Amino acid sequence: MGRARQSIARHRCAYDEKAKTVNPKTQWWPVALSHELRNAPLACQVYDMPLVLFRAEKGRPAALPDRCPHRFAQLSLGKVRDGSIECPYHGWRFAADGRCTRVPGVDLTRCSKPLLDSLPICEAHGLVWVSLGVEEPPQPPVAPAVNQQLDTFWITDQIRCSQQDAAENFLDGFHTHFVHAGWIRRDKKRQRISVRVRPLTDGIEAIYSEEGKQSGLISQLFERKRGSSMGRFRLPGLLEVEYRDHRDGLNLLVSVWLTPCGDQVRLFARIATAHDWLPAALKRSVLRRFFRVILRQDRHILEQVSANIRRFEASPVRPLDSPQDLLGPDIRVLLKQGRAQSFEERHFDFWL
Ligand code: FES
Ligand SMILES: [Fe+2]
After folding, report:
1. Which residues span the domain enclosing 230?
2. Atom of ligand 1 at shortest distance to CA of 91?
3. Which of 72, 113, 145, 163 is the most buried if burial means most Cβ atoms within 10 Å?
4. How many whole angstroms from 25 Cα to the centroid of ligand 1?
């Protein structure tokens, strides 16, 4: 059995009955924006598995281990020819199902058995998704809360930190006064808010009310009076922040899918706003700049924190949770178990 085969085989059981946990590796993980995957192969990684993506016949997406079975050249450095991926070393070609279709200089009748294990792959919500399981996951890829009639654009990035830390950071309002001072909130202009935290069938949600107009730049520019906002985490790795006006109309929906990728997380952020009188191109251009700044600030603090966690790796002391860590401890449990649990709705009042 090849190394890739063994590695995939390790991830094949989707549900561990004894531990009552779901194996996250067998879920759908986004690996590329659909429009990024064209005629050339794309390299990506899910957990510890390097993969190559390409478009096979009729434009169908395909995913194989990024390793030629011959001498282990990186297939992602090759080319796509006639719906197969061609290795850059000796030109062997592989179809979407992992069968070898050509060995140059040798008369080859088509291989009867795949030389590479192909992976389940699909396209949904503007993304290409892959699973490390044998079969397609029973649940479809996790969808954004609102999917229609919105002006949307994408930002992608990669951060050297854990999925847990990235998820917690994105949904934590209490760092915004410091890491994004003036951009999202100001420490000296806090407002009294009430928060409800409730379980979702596949995650957890915090609903913030009575936030009024925010002190940050982007809110001043783009937001009508805020009625409520939601921060939610859904398994296996969708984070959302949703801002609604006082008539419950959508102001902004940011959906971020996080894919574990070695010691990093790959991030696919979809920024969506309701159609309004502002031209979509103008909104996109201003919001893109804004979110790039915010993301750079978050990447900076998250990578610093991860490096510092590594410096204290030998220490038995663990990070300390406080009441302001509204979702972080639950996200930790959700990620560990791979499935949601029910709990009583919780209420808090804060100065945010
Ligand atoms: S290493 Fe791929 S064809 Fe030789
Ligand atoms: Fe942040």
Report:
1. 150-351
2. 3
3. 163
4. 28
Find the radius of gyration of the CA atoms of the chain: 22
Among 70, 67, 62, which residue's Cα sits nearest to residue 32? 62
In a domain, 198, yes or no: yes
| Domain edge (last residue) among 96, 130, 164 | 130
Give me the residues paired with residue 206 across strands: 197, 231
Residue 6, helix vs strand vs coil: helix
Nearest-CA residue for ligand 1 atom 1 is: 71
Q: Which helix (DSSP H) or strand (DSSP E) does residue 281 occupy?
A: helix 280-311
What is the DSSP annotation of 64-79? EESS-TTT---GGGSE
Which pLDDT score is estimated for 225? 65
Give mean pLDDT, residues 335-350: 89
The two tokens of residue 120 are: 């389940």
Query: Which residues have C-beta under 5 Å from ligand 2, the single-atom ion?
Result: 298
Does any ligand 1 atom lie closer than 6 A to the CB of residue 94? no
> How many domains, in total, are found in the chain?
2
Looking at the domain assignment, is residue 143 inside a domain?
Answer: no
> Which tens digit of pLDDT belongs to each residue from 92-133?
999 999 999 999 998 876 677 899 999 999 999 999 999 999
Q: pLDDT by residue (tens digit) across 206-250? A: 999 865 556 566 666 666 666 788 999 999 999 999 988 888 888
Cis peptide before 236 (omega within 30 of 0): yes
